[in-house]
Amino acid sequence: MSSSALLLLPCMGPKVKNTVHLFDLNKLQRQANIPTQFMWPKEDMVGNDGVFDEPLIDLEGFIKGDEAATAKAVELVRTACTNHGFFQVTNHGVDADLIQAAYREIDAIFELPFDKKLSFEQKRGGQEGFSSAHADRFSTSLPWKETISFRHRGMNSDSDVLDYFTSALGHDFENAGRVYQKYCEKMTELTLIIMELLALSLGVDRSYYRKFFEDGSSTMRCNYYPMCKNPGVTFGTGPHCDPNSITIVHQDQVGGLEILASDKWLAVPPRQDVLAINIGDTFMAFSNGIYKSCIHRAMVNEERGRRSLVCFVSPKEDMVVKPPEDLALGSIRVYPDFTWSSLLDFTTNHRRTDTHNLKNFFPWLVSSQSKVPT
Question: Which regions form coiled coils (predicted)?
């Protein structure tokens, strides 16, 4: 797929009309054809060109301080992030039993009656709750999926996820809250490790990026992509870059994650012991454009439903995003300063996330700032 073809991707803002097409599986499965609002333009439905087969990055030696292992990990990360912004890690410290417990607990939520799921539906502009194909925001090119999202304030809270589950879903889901509290805590620990690795790979002080995320936050999202009888016309998630800093992904054995590398879509084979790391727009700005925000998508399956566990990592919302002086390339800055809260507002409330988030964000930022009374 050529880079010019990416310009054809739909860039739609929020819906104007208050018409919501709900992703009710019981109704959808009785229909002979996929509703048009879930169908994507034909030019977007480009098949993949092979399998992503770059080396896995073993974190064990890096975590233990082994110099040879660290040098190898740093080189692999640098190569991956300058080319396409995606790498995979093993020996990451997240127990396999915890990952499987997370899948079991979330299955019970997606199996709830649709009306029950709507009782904790995500509010417009919010970051937590159930979403059926993001149909509250858009009316065309809808993703074939259901999601539940919740926030974690990182090292600043020891019960926020548990509190969300018990308040939004009830005490029957207290165990799910405990499992996801632990899962999010492990994601925070891994985030700080990844930030040290990214700093070393960019040639800056090891702790430089870590300090921005020690008091940061994350949004955890559990995705369910139901079986689709015509997967050639829709996406589980269409091509896009994540606006946050990094994204940590675990996909189940069905697979479906694909990334764009060297203008080709490559399928990422699932492995139970592997976590995938996407560079997002905010970290691309933190690196002064040296590292690429990963363009990726999620495919649906004709025979099986698919699930994934996704952690979107961000700094504090009022954090000013700018690269260290060592990466400013003399006097050349690729991106102006901005706060994470402003980019979050833009991609949540003003424009659909796509492959050109920052390109479209900065003109909007200038325009919105000019309207603020002085």
Answer: none
pLDDT digits 0-9 by tens, 43-80 = 889 999 999 999 999 999 999 999 999 999 999 999 99
- How many angstroms from the chain centroid is the CA of residue 286? 17
Single out the catalytic residue among 137, 306, 307, 352. 306
pTM recorded for the entire structure: 0.92
**Band of the pLDDT at 3, cuts 50, 70, 90?**
very low
Cα gap 150→122, rounded to integer Å: 10
Give the span between the Cα atoms of 82 and 80, in whole angstroms: 6
Residue count of the chain: 374
Q: Is 204 helix (H, G, I), strand (E, B) or coil?
A: coil
- Model confidence pLDDT, tens digit, residues 201-245: 999 999 999 999 998 899 999 999 999 989 999 999 999 999 999
End-to-end Cα, the chain, rounded Å: 47
Q: Give the sign of the dihedral formed by CA 260, CA 265, CA 266, CA 270.
A: positive
In the beta sheet, which residues pair with residue 130? Answer: 121, 148
Buried b (16+ CB within 10 A) or exposed e, 52-68: bebeebbbebbbeeeee
Domains and CATH numbers, the chain: 37-370 (2.60.120.330)
Q: 3-class SS at 239? A: strand
Q: Give the pLDDT mean for 85-106.
A: 97
- Whole-number Cα distances in Å, 10 to 186, 193, 279, 353: 36, 36, 22, 10
Q: What are the C-alpha distances in Å from 254 to residues 18, 94, 250, 303?
A: 35, 20, 12, 10
- The percentage of residues in the chain with a pLDDT greater than 90, rounded to a whole number, is 76
Helix, strand or coil for residue 32?
coil
Give the separation between CA 207 and CA 350, rounded to whole angstroms.
34
Is residue 306 part of the annotated active site? The answer reads yes
Spatial separation of the C-alpha atoms in residues 221 and 106, rounded to whole Å: 10
- What's CA 304's distance to the chain center, in Å? 22
Q: At what angle do helices 174-202 and 160-168 cross, to 10 degrees?
A: 140
Among residues 110, 115, 109, the alpha carbon closest in space to that of 22 is found at 115
Query: Token pair of 222, please?
Result: 């559990």
Cα–Cα distance measured from residue 221 to residue 186, given in angstroms and rounded to the nearest whole number: 15
Pull the structure tokens for residue 179. 């499992």
